[in-house]
Design brief:
6-stranded mixed barrel, 5-stranded antiparallel sheet, 7 helices
């Protein structure tokens, strides 16, 4: 549970380190229900997926005259797991997550290196042939690399509305979906969108502001062609158009969206992606939304929550400054300056969480990354403090990217040190134990769900966000965290 907390005494050395000190208003320990967490790893294989829920049954509410609310579903709701056990499911999740993190880091590296749009053009493997949307291959889009999309909403595309599932991704700006005719399309839960069946489908010309806003584009016969490149091996390429997107009963006209004729990647049944990033082409930007929020339900359940637009932050939200990086407008940077374990603020330099003058560093909030990544020295300090506070638990070898794991098979519950994020405005967000000590199999193996990164970019992942409503107040430049608000 998160608490508002004002740091009365902060001592900073000349080197910029926060000295370790006790935080008296924070509970030093928190309880993990081992039995409940383990049972979920078994029940997940008996959950019913509903990949083609009727569109009219999707919850959509107008909470007020100016706010919109759309149902949000976990990955398991869309496609029942094909894995034989929870250990193999976890392994696949972590592999997807590593690809996702590499994708975001590459995005930042390209921006800092000031790689021009022309430098990102794909190699012409169809040399000598006429260029068409179906003839282009390029690496793609953050958030869906190797199926790393974890949360989805059901929306209508076109007039009349064709219901499809879309991945939701705060790390991307360009909205897109698969379109007929397909030169190459992956399998999705719903029929491929047929542009000819929609009366509102309209290709964008090359001189439009939307086309000019793309990171990478081509122009053929005055028609705008899009591609989005992050170097992770999957791709989507096609026509850039405007189309009507329907959220329940509300039809949103002239939304710029990619109509992908050439797409490849394990996108797990979704037709495409809604970009929730901070760029001009993202869905919130095109809605002129002043805010949006989501609550990420447990990935091992088929329960649903909501994605809300233009709803205010709850009064009890733990807020932090929302910061931007002039080099990458997509990412939402968090005004964070410390981490505590067991009520002790760790001796980590505040610069570890700051964007420097070159645009490097900082920590972002991301819906598509699972496990929170911290710069290696920061992670080491966090891990060492947690290990020190869990000497009463049986430690075992690491699993995949996790280097700190425990055998809790003989336990029904355990008390562990509280892990908290500290923000530059003095507020503190204490994480529930289930958001940082997670099962990796059904046999009682639990791991500390943080990982180091060699990149300068740190990321707050969705494991740490689960069960918390995360709000982005774009107008007031705040990020709010409201526990137990799904």
């Amino acid at each position: 549970m998160g608490f508002l907390f004002y740091l009365l005494f902060v001592f900073v050395s000349s080197s910029g380190f926060v000295h370790s000190r006790s935080l008296s208003q924070t509970s030093k320990t928190t309880l993990l229900d081992v039995t409940a967490s383990t049972q979920k790893t078994i029940r997940v294989f008996s959950l019913d997926s509903k990949p083609t829920w009727p569109f009219q049954q999707q919850s959509f509410e107008e909470a007020s005259s100016s706010s919109l609310s759309l149902e949000l579903h976990s990955r398991i709701s869309l496609l029942k797991s094909s894995h034989k056990d929870y250990k193999s499911m976890t392994s696949a999740r972590l592999a997807r997550d590593s690809a996702r993190v590499r994708s975001l880091a590459t995005r930042l590296d390209l921006a800092l290196a000031k790689i021009s749009h022309s430098d990102l053009k794909p190699i012409d493997k169809y040399s000598g042939l006429s260029f068409g949307a179906e003839d282009v291959e390029a690496p793609i889009i953050s958030g869906t690399s190797e199926g790393s999309g974890e949360y989805f909403s059901r929306v209508g595309i076109g007039k009349p509305a064709n219901p499809v599932y879309m991945v939701l991704d705060t790390g991307s700006d360009v909205n897109w979906l698969q379109c007929a005719p397909c030169a190459e399309c992956y399998q999705q839960a719903d029929p491929i969108f047929q542009p000819a069946s929609s009366s509102s489908f309209s290709p964008l010309s090359c001189e439009t502001e939307q086309c000019k806003s793309l990171d990478v584009s081509e122009c053929r016969n005055d028609t705008c062609l899009y591609e989005v490149s992050y170097g992770d091996g999957s791709y989507t390429v096609g026509d850039f158009v405007t189309e009507t997107i329907t959220l329940g009963s509300a039809a949103l006209n002239n939304v710029a969206i990619g109509c992908g004729h050439n797409n490849e990647g394990l996108f797990i049944g979704a037709a495409g992606l809604l970009g929730l990033g901070g760029g001009s082409l993202s869905f919130p930007s095109q809605l002129n939304a002043k805010s949006f929020s989501y609550c990420l339900v447990d990935r091992d359940s088929n329960s649903a929550s909501t994605l809300d637009f233009d709803s205010p932050l709850p009064p009890n939200a733990v807020t932090a400054p929302l910061r931007r990086n002039s080099q990458v407008e997509t990412f939402y940077y968090l005004g964070m300056d410390g981490v505590s374990v067991g009520g002790e603020l760790l001796p980590i330099p505040k610069s570890s969480f700051e964007v420097d003058e070159n645009g490097s560093g900082g920590i972002i909030v991301d819906s598509g990354t699972a496990v929170t990544r911290l710069q290696t020295e920061t992670y080491n300090a966090l891990r060492d403090a947690f290990v020190k506070g869990t000497k009463h638990l049986t430690s075992i070898d690491g699993v995949a990217l996790f280097d700190t794991c425990y055998d809790l098979s003989s336990k029904t519950s355990v008390e562990v040190p509280t892990v908290s994020f500290h923000f530059v405005n003095g507020n503190e967000l204490a994480l529930p134990a289930k958001n940082f000590l997670i099962p990796v199999d059904s046999n009682g193996t639990f791991c500390f769900a943080f990982a180091p990164t060699a990149s300068s970019l740190s990321i707050v992942g969705n494991v740490q966000q689960q069960g918390t409503r995360v709000g982005f107040d774009l107008a007031n430049e705040l990020i709010g965290f409201t526990p137990n608000k799904c």
